[in-house]
Amino acid sequence: MDVFLVPVAPDRYELYCEEPDEESLAQEGATPPGFLRRMALRFREQLAEAERARRHGPRPGDARSSFLCRAKARTLRWVAESIAEQRLLWQLRGKDAVLLVYPDDLTEPQARQLLKRSLQRDWERHRFWLAVDSLGAAGSVLLILLPGPNFIGYYFMFRIVGHYLSLRGARQGLNFVQWRVQASAPLAALRTMIHEAPDARADRVRDVESALQLEHLASFFQRTATP
Q1: Which terminus in the chain has less CB density within 10 A, N or C?
Q2: Rounded to the nearest 5 degrees, what angle is found at the Cα of 59, between the Cα atoms of 43 and 76?
Q3: What pLDDT, on the 0 to 100 scale, is given for residue 113?
Q4: DSSP state, 85?
Q5: Integer Cα distance of 164 and 18 in angstroms
Q6: Are strands 2-9 and 12-16 parallel, antiparallel or unpaired?
Q7: pLDDT in tens, 83-104
Q8: How far is CA 216 from CA 31, 51, 105, 168, 206, in A?
């Protein structure tokens, strides 16, 4: 697994990676024990389905599906978009060794410190929102008395599982992953483009994306990089 330390502001960096979608846990055998693990299994299955729909469009026959099925699909696609930034942390959960690629105008100690600071910030943030969303989920239990699907409850359950997986990933990255490092001139080149308008820098950002053999770095940088 490769993780990239991307400069997105004069004094701010974001971690970025491109990993293939995880296969469904259902293919690994029996349903895992425990309520939270079963919920995580269901979460990953539905999120994978939402991601396929987001990338490739609805499957044939979806137009004949019920209103509730279409509403569910739209909700899942929205969730897939809204929690995209957590996927890096989810991927870290099962990793023992990871390569950190950083701009070559930083020193290795600086890059490692920025990595640690980012993972620590993520751990604290997801711990806070896990507590908040758990309270929201507890309150949404009252809605089961109303007819129809409890979409608010589904929303909070998705949030809870996402934060839980992110916490585990941040903890793995902080305490157990062996981080190798590699300096990169193309990543450093992105720093010179931060102050430019997205349209003006678009071609050069794509050149960096190509040099690093990545597929979605350009859209990530154009969305997150700010003066």
Answers
A1: C
A2: 30
A3: 97
A4: G
A5: 21
A6: antiparallel
A7: 656 788 988 998 999 999 999 9
A8: 33, 15, 23, 25, 9
Starting at the edge strand found earlier in the chain, the sheet holding 12-16 runs 12-16, 2-9, 97-103, 178-184
Instruction: At 180, list the tokens.
Output: 């190798």
Pairing, β 178-184 against β 97-103: parallel
Q: Which helix (H) or strand (E) holds 114?
A: helix 108-140
d(CA 40, CA 21): 15
Comparing CA positions, the residue from 80, 177, 171 lying closest to residue 122 is 171
Q: How far is CA 204 from the centre of its chain?
A: 25
* Contact status, residue 93 vs residue 165, Cβ threshold 8 Å: yes
The whole-number pLDDT of residue 78 equals 60
Nearest Cα neighbor of 166 from 219, 202, 128 is 128
Answer for the pair 7, 194: CB distance below 8 angstroms, yes or no.
Answer: yes
Give 181-200 pLDDT, tens digit per residue: 999 999 999 999 999 999 99
Residue type at position 107: T
